[in-house]
Amino acid sequence: MSTAELATSYAALILADDGVDITADKLQTLISAAKVEGVEPIWTTLFAKALEGKDIKDLLLNVGSGGGAAPAAAGGAAAGGAEAGGAAEEKKEEKEEEKEESDEDMGFGLFD
């Protein structure tokens, strides 16, 4: 990670901790006050647009919570496989695994 990215990330965290809206101007002001040189305004603009309307504290608290349910579901299907309804559950599991989240489901795309 470059110095510009780190400085902008830290500035965004400071603003979020203080409960202040994150804007490019506020990020640039914090970076200038910290006397970090060489941070182009594009970084503050990108971070401000990416974090607009998002709760950073909530993002940090839920960083790894997305993948915990899959292993538990697979274990339940394996345990129920001995029963008559186990085969139907396995087919349902396979269909659910095939469906993957796309960028559209997350609210952003590659070129947004």
Description of the molecule:
By secondary structure, the protein is mostly helical. It has two domains: 3-54, Arc Repressor Mutant, subunit A; 71-97, no CATH class. The protein contains seven helices and no strands. The protein has helices spanning 3-18, 24-33, 41-51, 56-61, 69-79, 86-98, 103-106. The chain starts with a helix and ends in a 6-residue tail after the last helix. Residues 68-74 have low confidence and may be disordered.
Topology of this structure?
Blueprint: H1 3-18, H2 24-33, H3 41-51, H4 56-61, H5 69-79, H6 86-98, H7 103-106
List keywords for this structure.
112 residues; mainly alpha; Arc Repressor Mutant, subunit A; elongated
